[in-house]
Structure formats: C-alpha cells, structure tokens
C-alpha cells in the first residue's frame, strides 16, 4: 500500500472542480460539469499511468478523478461522456441532489469500501512497517528502505531474535 495513494486520490477527486477555477483564472470559460467532467479525462490519466508513473501517483490521481465523475453521475444534473455527446449520464436515475444527507451517506460508504479494497486495513502492512522501523531504532540499525524491508521479513519468522542479532552484526 502506498501511503501517498489517499491524498493523491483525494486531490484527483476534486480536480474536475478546481481545474475549472484554474481555467477561469486564465480567462478560459467552461461550464460547470462540462469540459472538465468528460469521462475520457480520468480514463486517459489512468491509461497514461501504465506507461509512466512514479509509485502509482498518476494512477491514484486518475482513480480519484474517476470517482468524482461517478459521484456526479448520481446527481440530477448528471455528467457528459464527451464534448461530442450532448446527453448527460445519470447512473441509477440521477436522483441525488448535491448537499443532501443521502449524498454524504453514499460518499462515506464508498470511502469505507475503497479503504478496504486498497488493503490498508486488511493486510496491515503499514503497521508491520512501523514495527520494523521501531525495531531498527531499538537495535541501532540504519533506517534505510532496504533494512526496513529486511527487518519486516525477519519479524515474520518465529526465530526472529536470533536472525535480528545476526542482521544487527552485519550492519
């Protein structure tokens, strides 16, 4: 799990709206839920992330952007597929109004599902990494990424105290 995934996805999830402000700053007028809300934008960002991406940052930005499009598709206003299609997409009938309590219920439900699917809760890697960092500090092992990964592997074994002593001697 990449800890940067959540803030980058959050930034991406608001990008369709704040990009409108940036365009307006440069005197480029766009309609709300118009050009910045076309479906191909997040799909293109995600596709490009497979060509070049550093630690999946572009991928998670694209996923966040896509979730914004999906969330807006539940609303009465709907969202466009592209500039070539004048119809707006309304998933599940587009019955939600922005700001209703139902919107927040759905948003927090999707957030919970996203966290579970990301693995941050289910596999506890972040807890294991913190334990390895703490163990390195306790044993005067230099805090390098390689050492932390090695200590994480050692902590998985039952005979970890003996392995840790040997690893400490080597470093």
Q: Topology, please?
A:
Layout: H1 5-25, H2 40-49, H3 57-73, E1 79-80, E2 88-89, H4 101-118, H5 125-138, H6 145-156, H7 160-170
Antiparallel strand pairs: 1-2
Helix pairs in contact: 1-3, 2-3, 5-6, 6-7
Average pLDDT level: 83
Number of helices: 7
Q: Which spans have pLDDT < 50 for at least 5 consecutive residues?
A: none
Total E-strand runs: 2
Radius of gyration of CA atoms, rounded to a whole number: 22 Å
Derived from helix and strand composition plus strand pairing, the structural class reads mainly alpha
Termini gap: 27 Å
Largest sheet: 2 strands, antiparallel
The ordered string of helix (H) and strand (E) elements is HHHEEHHHH
**Proportion of residues in helical segments:** 55-70%
Spatial arrangement of strands, main beta sheet: 1-2
Account of the 3D structure:
It is a single chain. A two-stranded antiparallel ribbon has the order 1-2. It contains 7 helices and 2 strands. With 171 residues, it is mostly helical.
Which characteristics define this entry?
171 residues, mainly alpha, two-stranded antiparallel sheet, 7 helices, 2 strands, 60% helix
Summarize the structure.
By secondary structure, the chain is mostly helical.
